[in-house]
Amino acid sequence: MGDEVIDFQIGRRLILKTMKLKTADFLVLVIASIPLIYWLQVGHIMPDRVPTHWNIRGQADAWQSRDDLPVFLAVLAGVGILLYIILRTLKKIDPKRSAQLNEATAIKVGVGIVTMITMLGLLMLYAPLKGYDIVSGVFLLISLFFAFLGNVMYNIKQNYFIGIRLPWTLDSEDNWTRTHRLAGVLWFVGGICCAALTFLVTPQSMAPVFFTVAISLLIIPSVYSFLLFRRSKG
């Protein structure tokens, strides 16, 4: 009787886990398809040419014709879905999977990436129609994505694929944990501050500020991790 109860509980957990994965997969497909659905509604009133890339000064330097835009959006969606699939399967090839990389965390990051790519696609369609400054929108989306990653990073477990993967963080779980808790706070605060700045300054003024903050978010945790390593060695 006891073995039957245990088998039932294990089976129930597997079913619930499978349902959660299928829900996440379905959600990703829905999110990724939103720009194409929006294009079906507004494609006939889009300009003949739509900018798809901008230089650091906020000037468009690559364009797509209105008729080719669905292909471009489909490629964006495909990239997002591919990245999600890769992240979802990371645990199977992570040498530390026995105790560390949380599958739910990897899926959360994957859904976040797909959502950001979807928002970029929508922005690409919305901006030409409404006269919105797309460069400010891009800075806003990336800043919010940094804040999202900071929230994830704060509690992420040691692994070889997601996070600040330095020799010292991979060698020591304590170094990993302390480095990512600092990085999580910095990325979240930095992302929110940059997002707020997009409403206060011009895109041209925002660019140097954004890149300075982005570089700092990488350098500060890396230096902190190295100092922890030096301290641990006496």
From TrEMBL:
Domain DUF1648 as annotated: residue spans: 31-66
Keywords on record: Membrane, Transmembrane, Transmembrane helix
Domain of life of the organism encoding this protein: Bacteria
GO biological process annotation, one example: response to toxic substance
Pfam families: DUF1648 (PF07853), SdpI (PF13630)
Source species taxonomy: Bacteria, Pseudomonadati, Bacteroidota, Cytophagia, Cytophagales
Protein name (database record): DUF1648 domain-containing protein
InterPro entries, per the entry: DUF1648, SdpI, SdpI/YhfL
Transmembrane feature ranges: 21-40, 69-87, 107-128, 134-156, 182-201, 207-229
Source species: Pseudochryseolinea flava
